[in-house]
Amino acid sequence: MNLVVEHDGRTYSWTDGAWIDHGRQLRAPGAIRGHLNAKLFSEFWKLRPGEYVSDPFARRDMFRDLQDRFGASTGQLARFGFLDEVIDRDPVAALTAFYDSTPIPAARTFTNCPRLRDRFFETSAARPFPLAVRVIGKGPFGRCDLEAFLSRHGMKLSRGAERANALVIGREAWRHAEVDACVDDAEGTVLQVYSQEMLISVLAGQPDPFCTWPYLERMRDLYAFRAGHPGLEYVSKGWTGWVTGYSGAAIPAWSANETLRGQVDCSPLTVMGYRVGASGVDTMTRRSILRAALSAPIPSVGGADYMEQWGTPASGTRLRRIAEQLVSNVATHRNRISHAVAVEDWQGDLRWLKETFYRGVYAFNWPQA
Fold this sequence. Notes:
Structural class: alpha/beta
Shape: globular
Order of helices and strands: EEEEHHHHHEHEHEEHHHEHHHHH
Low-confidence stretches: 249-263
CATH superfamily of the largest domain: BRCT domain
Strand order of the largest sheet: 1-2-3-4
Number of strands: 9
CATH architecture of the largest domain: 3-Layer(aba) Sandwich
CATH topology of the largest domain: Rossmann fold
CATH class of the largest domain: Alpha Beta
Strand content: 5-15%
Largest sheet: 4 strands, antiparallel
Number of domains: 3
Distance between the termini: 58 Å
C-alpha cells in the first residue's frame, strides 16, 4: 500500500514496511507510530477501501498489510470493508467485533417508540406470528404495554408454566434465571429469542432472521440485532443454539438399534421435536425444526454409519437425507386413513423444503414421495 499521513506539520508515508518522514527521509520514531496508525485507520474508516477494491490480489495484500503490519483489529478490518474476509476466519468474532464497535444512531422509530409503533400499525396489519410468546424485562417498551400490544394484534402469550417458543427480552429489568429457565423449558423444541425491536420489525413485515438462509446470512442479521442489547448478548454468550432457534443443548444420545435397512427406531428429526398430524406441532414450528436440522448440528441417533448418512450442516447431503426421511414416512403411511393429516403435513413440508432450499441450488435428484 502507498499511504501518506500528516502529523504535527510533517508528512509520513508507509514505505517498505515502515513509516518514513518525507522531509528527513528517516523512519518515524516509535513514539508517534501509534498516532500514525490511528490516523491511517481514521482515514480508512472514511474511505472503506474494502468496498471498492475488487481485485482479489489487491484486497489480499491490503488485508494482510492492515492486519500484520499495522496490527488492525478484527473490528477495524471489518469496518474498513473487509468483513467477508474476517468472517471467513472467525464469523462469530468478526460479527461481534464489527457490530459492537459500530455506533448505533439514537432515533425514535416504530420499533422503539410506543406512539410511532401504534400509529404504524393503525394502517398496517401485523404479520401473523404463530409461536407462543413470552415477554420478560422492559425496554424500549414496558412489559405490560408490549403484552397489551401483542394481544391486540392476535399474538398468543405464554404465561405461567405454559411453554414459550418465542422469548422476547427487554433491555433491562430481566434476570438471568428467567432466561435460563425459558431455555431449559424449551429443551428439544423450537426456541427463538428476540429483542423487542426485533419482534416489532418482524410483525411489520421485515424478514425474520430465524427464517434467513443461508446460515451465515442469518448470523449477520442476528448479530446486528444483538449489538448493544444486554439480553441478546447474554443469550448468545451462554447458549450456542441461539442462532438456530432450536433449544437442543441437552439432547440425549439415543441408542436405538439399527435395522437391516440402516434405519433407526427414532430419527434425529423426531428427537428434535418434529411431529406431524393432528397431535403434532404447527406448520411454522415443524419448519423451524427442519431449518435447524438442515443448518446446525443434529442429535446423535444410532451408530456412526447411520449418522454419516446425514452429512454435515448446510450441505446437499443433509438436505437430501431430510427429504428422504419425509419421503420414507409418506411411503410407509400413505395408505392408512388414520394418517391422512400426517401424510399431508409431510408432503407439504417436502414441497416447502424443495422450494426454499433445493431449487436452483443443488443438482441431486429430489426424492419423490
